[in-house]
Amino acid sequence: MATPKGYSLAQISLHWIIAALILFQLVFGDAIGGAWRSVRQGAVPEMGAMAWAHIGVGVTVLLLVLWRISLRMARGVPAEAVTGTALTRFAAKVVHLGLYLLMLALPITGLAAWFGGITSAADVHELMKPLLILLIVLHVIGALWHQFVLKDNLLARMKRPG
Hints:
This protein is mainly α. Helix content is 75%, strand content 0%. It has one domain (9-154). It is built from 5 helices and no strands.
């Protein structure tokens, strides 16, 4: 398979849609936490719109990430940036892999906890949230580093199809 010069419109769109959905989850995820605490105490949870939204958005993220991975496997991705040190390129790979793993694991553990009643899945789900935030921060810092320090225009790859 030939290496594409840039990301497709679908890949770019999925990147930004998933980013927005994850931001929604991080900002408004407390509603499901309250409902889960009720379940753990043996009470019937109050399932407001935001708790249902958390579940629905989580399922949507899972489906979109699976689509994104299938596009990545079918189409490929542009060659890695040659700027930076071997260590920073390795760090970028680790961060990207970690983001993909968490974008799969968080919805799966959330669904296992909520619909399967698996308490340990809920615990793991909650422990992954700070790691996701850390990886997002590192991802954003890396993109900004490329844009404003290295000035290699890497960020443009996620703004328009190539």
